[in-house]
Q: What sequence folds into this?
């Protein structure tokens, strides 16, 4: 007691984690996943809760949803009527046989139609006691909650269904055995959107009076990647460490590769400056960033990079292959350098940074069709001449000395006989269109979101009805124009047909001279 009084530190000096401080207590207050939340609201209103499996990525509100649902169902009897087991607890077969079974047998006075609730959070993560029970090492990727424990839990769910309900939260429902899945209603959660995370961050910032700039919030949303828990933790850590939320402070706290650095590295490679791109990669590697963090940030930068769609698809495909090889344990730095080399060899741009990037393609020696990097069949003749073909069919026809201009499926035939000219023009026009660069937060600014939050429900409903009315009028107008145009065309067609059906006027024939005709 003397030591604590002399230090002058009280319990109020310690900040409660904002994740717990601002955790919603009602199902209606949960952000995002409107379909899942509406299902849980119906359960809370009716009071008849089935056995549940809540599956989805971390930080999307699974634990918060089931805790809020339990609070609404049992009310003040929460401590007596709810048993919560986390991944840090021992959840082997002994726990199912003893602790969970004893809780299910315990009598608790509840309102009519209410049940006791057993919450198994992170049911697909491995407990340390699992390996002790089996006498072997079990990795989390191979084993979740003990298989024997899940089999025992299946029987417990059946026996005590009249008094107890079970709720399992997991990242992937595939790690829960099929018999348990068939006894539960599965509610799936998805990652939160940027607007949903931003709205919740603004609520916390207003309550805690945190100074910030919009770029800092964009950095927090970028590092969170749809995880509300991580976004709030990053916000609190940045505010506690620097007392100001900006982009630089956020990336210092989160310790992730800076997106601008990765973006510059990609730009250097695309502009032909391969050495500068590799030096940027070496800097990230020397700073201690893991290859997984580097390639994950690289993937997200490529996804939002301003480039034609076919280029983006090739980039993402090569990034996925490199990530797969890194996860297999192949040399990480070598694979990252190889990825940059593929970008540099397979793609090119003009001399300036503003030039449009073009995919390096070659033409098939027989059909004349385009061959993209990594595709086609290469044939080297005895005189060291190299031929590239789109497929084995083109190679076979080339060796048989057939003329490609006589085969209708070749590009040379279409060009010579002027076929599909309109389709080729449309394709060229599509290739030339540029897409605007999209940041992490798409479609809304801070001012727009704050304005929408301050709107009354009546104003919002009126705006929605006006928008729907405008859309209906536009559709009706388009239909009327089409109908009038069709009627005009029909009338012109009928007039043309009526003119063509009128018989031609012929001169009346006079009486034949010379009497009766015929052969004499």
A:
């Amino acid at each position: 007691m003397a030591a604590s009084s002399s230090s002058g530190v009280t319990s109020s000096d310690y900040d409660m984690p904002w994740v717990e401080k601002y955790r919603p207590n009602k199902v209606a207050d949960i952000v995002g996943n409107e379909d899942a939340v509406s299902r849980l609201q119906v359960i809370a209103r009716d009071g008849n809760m089935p056995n549940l499996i809540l599956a989805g990525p971390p930080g999307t509100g699974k634990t918060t949803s089931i805790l809020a649902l339990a609070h609404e169902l049992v009310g003040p009897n929460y401590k007596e009527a709810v048993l919560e087991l986390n991944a840090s607890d021992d959840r082997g077969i002994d726990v199912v046989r003893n602790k969970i079974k004893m809780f299910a047998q315990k009598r608790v006075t509840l309102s009519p139609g209410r049940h006791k609730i057993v919450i198994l959070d992170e049911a697909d993560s491995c407990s340390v006691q699992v390996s002790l029970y089996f006498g072997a090492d079990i990795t989390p990727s191979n084993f979740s909650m003990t298989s024997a424990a899940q089999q025992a839990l299946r029987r417990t769910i059946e026996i005590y269904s009249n008094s107890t309900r079970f709720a399992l939260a997991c990242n992937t429902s595939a790690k829960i055995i099929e018999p348990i899945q068939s006894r539960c209603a599965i509610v799936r959660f998805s990652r939160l959107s940027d607007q949903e995370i931003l709205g919740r961050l603004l609520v916390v910032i207003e309550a805690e009076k945190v100074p910030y700039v919009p770029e800092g919030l964009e950095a927090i949303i970028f590092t969170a990647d749809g995880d509300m828990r991580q976004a709030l933790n990053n916000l609190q850590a940045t505010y506690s460490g620097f007392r100001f939320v900006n982009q630089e402070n956020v990336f210092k706290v989160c310790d992730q590769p800076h997106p601008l650095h990765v973006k510059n590295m990609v730009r250097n490679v695309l502009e032909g400056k391969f050495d500068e791109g590799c030096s940027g990669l070496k800097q990230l590697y020397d700073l201690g960033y893991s290859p997984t963090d580097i390639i994950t940030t690289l993937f997200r930068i490529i996804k939002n990079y301003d480039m034609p769609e076919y280029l983006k698809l090739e980039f993402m495909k090569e990034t996925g292959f490199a990530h797969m090889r890194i996860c297999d344990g192949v040399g990480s730095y070598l694979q990252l350098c190889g990825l940059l080399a593929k970008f540099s060899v397979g793609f090119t741009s003009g001399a300036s940074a503003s030039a449009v990037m073009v995919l390096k393609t070659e033409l098939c020696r027989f059909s004349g069709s385009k061959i993209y990097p990594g595709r086609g069949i290469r044939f080297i003749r005895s005189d060291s001449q190299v031929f590239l073909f789109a497929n084995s069919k083109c190679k076979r026809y080339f060796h048989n000395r057939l003329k490609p201009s006589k085969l209708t499926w070749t590009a040379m035939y279409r060009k010579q006989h002027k076929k599909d000219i309109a389709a080729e023009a449309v394709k060229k026009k599509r290739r030339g269109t540029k897409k605007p660069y999209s940041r992490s937060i798409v479609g809304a600014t801070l001012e727009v979101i704050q304005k929408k939050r301050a709107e009354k429900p009546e104003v919002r409903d009126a705006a929605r009805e006006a928008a729907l009315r405008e859309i209906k009028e536009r559709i009706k107008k388009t239909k009327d124009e089409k109908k009038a145009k069709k009627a005009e065309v029909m009338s012109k067609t009928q007039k043309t047909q009526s003119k063509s059906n009128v018989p031609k006027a012929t001169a009346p024939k006079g009486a034949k001279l010379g009497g009766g005709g015929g052969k004499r």
About this structure: Residues 198 and 221 are 7 Å apart (CA to CA). The first strand starts at residue 52 and ends at 55. Residues 457-501 form the longest helix (45 residues).
